[in-house]
Amino acid sequence: MRAVFLDFGSVTRGDLDCTALEQAISPWQFYDETDLDRVAERIEHAEIVVCNKFSLKRDIIESASRLKLICIAATGFNNIDLAAAAEYNIAVCNVRGYATPSVVQHVFMLMLNLYCGFESYRQLVNDGRWQTCKHFCPLDFSIQELSGKILGIIGFGELGQAVSTVAKAFGMQVLVAEHKNQPVRKGRTAFEDVLRQADFVTLHCPLSDDTCNLIARHELNLMKSTAYLINTARGAIINEADLLEALTTDRIAGAGLDVLSKEPPVHDNPLLQYRQPNLIITPHVAWASRESRQRLINQIANNIHNFFNHKPFNQVTVGNTIPATEFQIRVVRWADEMPSLRAVREAVFIHEQHVPEEMEWDTFDQESTHVLATDSDGQPIGTARLLPDGHIGRMAVLKSWRNRGVGSAMLKRLLDEAQRRGMSQAILNAQVTASAFYARFGFQVVSDTFMEAEIPHIKMELKL
User: Fold this and answer.
1) What single DSSP character describes residue 315?
2) CA–CA separation, 5 vs 75, rounded Å?
3) H-run or E-run covering 438
4) For this structure, is 178 an active site residue?
5) How far apart are CA 132 and CA 303, in angstroms?
6) Is the pLDDT of residue 323 over 70?
7) What is the CA radius of gyration of the chain?
């Protein structure tokens, strides 16, 4: 079985241990980089392809007749034609949560450099001006403290939450922005209010149609003239021309960027021509600590191992969103979390699908096992039940959270729990319209269609 890494040079400088990859599958062919006209040749006989930012579109996927699995060496998957992969029954997976410590420290590196005049003072020393200073300590440039300042966080998944934790250790006040033009949830602050109040605004949201140019002239004009903008997410979230205007007119105090809209950037990118110390640009390396890159390699290996052993892995499909990190999954007893579990099931089944109330509650007992999904504020958003005989009860996810990866995460946790308990199979009654979702995890139809609560279902089974 052959595995190919098309752009291995994008994740290593010769400092990573690839033992886990070699134990997951062999043989491997590692290419430092791959020209577009050589992709078809290099993956022609491959069953596994790993790539970081390399684009795999329909024509390439169609040419790889033996391909079974595409592993993305990143969280984002907009470089893969998911629809084409699905048509050819090729699974796609990504890596998640591997770079959190690295990105968080980079965020604060940018903030501290900007707030403490680091580059200006470094240049002062290099120019010999400290040696000619009349005092022991030159005070040519402003130095400010993070303590007591307000940090606005846009995107409160795993990264946003980790940044919040460190910010509070510095003594900062944290404001978590609500999604733009959305009702404000408990624990959040209206999007534009965050921009108005924050001394630093840091971006940790994925790039999508909704977040492209999320920060443009209007948003920059809302910010304090003393505020700084930090972006370690995706370059196109910021309108670069509008940011340059805000910097050159002193509309905001400065910015720290680890990403640009096009990477590698073109030489005439106007932000790269701006040479003032209130703009720091680093070349998309916030994620790239050695430890982070090693976790990435190990997670790719784990995805490959689990895929071939029919275990849950980080599969992404058409309709997934990035990342599924604004929620948490726990295994709980009905007796311990009954109000939260009941609230979700009532909202989905009784009120939305019009299941009779007595039918919904007639088989529950206090010791039954459930997975409970909660949002970042601890509010319940999804649940499913695992019965002692391996049956999986109907999954319920609030409408506003569907198509955001909650159902996949719950099912993976249920299957992990079933395996931990020594179960040999998982059985569920799936709505016919949702059968493709379960099939992605390896479930197979074992009976014909039948009716349950006036809704057509099929019985499905997975060997664990």
Assistant:
1) B
2) 16
3) helix 435-439
4) no
5) 59
6) no
7) 25
pTM for the full predicted model: 0.69
CATH fold, domain 3-97+291-307, is: Rossmann fold (3.40.50)
Q: Say yes or no to pLDDT of 362 above 80.
A: no
Catalytic residue at 13?
Answer: no
CA 407 – CA 436 distance, rounded (Å):
13
Superfamily of domain 326-463: Gcn5-related N-acetyltransferase (GNAT) (3.40.630.30)
Cα(330)–Cα(348) distance, integer angstroms: 19
> Exposed, middle or buried by CB within 10 Å (0-12, 13-18, 19+), for 265?
middle
Which member of 234, 295, 345, 404 is catalytic?
234
Q: In the chain, where are the structural domains located? A: 3-97+291-307, 100-281, 326-463
Q: What is the pLDDT of residues 106-142, one digit of tens each?
A: 999 999 999 999 888 888 999 899 999 999 999 988 8
The token pair that represents 326 in the structure block: 């604004």
Q: Provide the percentage of residues in the chain whose pLDDT is more than 70.
A: 94
Least confident of 303-307, 316-320, 367-371: 316-320
Of residues 145, 263, 352, 367, which has the active-site annotation?
A: 263
Query: Where do we find the tokens 């993976």?
Result: 412
Instruction: Please name which of 329, 330, 360, 365 lies closest in space to residue 347, comparing C-alpha atoms.
Output: 360
Matching CATH topology for 3-97+291-307 and 100-281? Answer: yes
Whole-angstrom Cα distance, residue 394 to residue 430?
A: 8
Q: Is the pLDDT of residue 299 over 80?
A: yes
pLDDT digits (tens, 9 = 90+) for 431-461: 776 777 787 788 888 877 776 656 678 888 8
**234 carries an active-site annotation:** yes
**C-alpha to C-alpha distance for 204 and 163, rounded to whole angstroms:** 9
Catalytic residue among 96, 106, 204, 284: 284
Q: Token digits for 15?
A: 């400092």
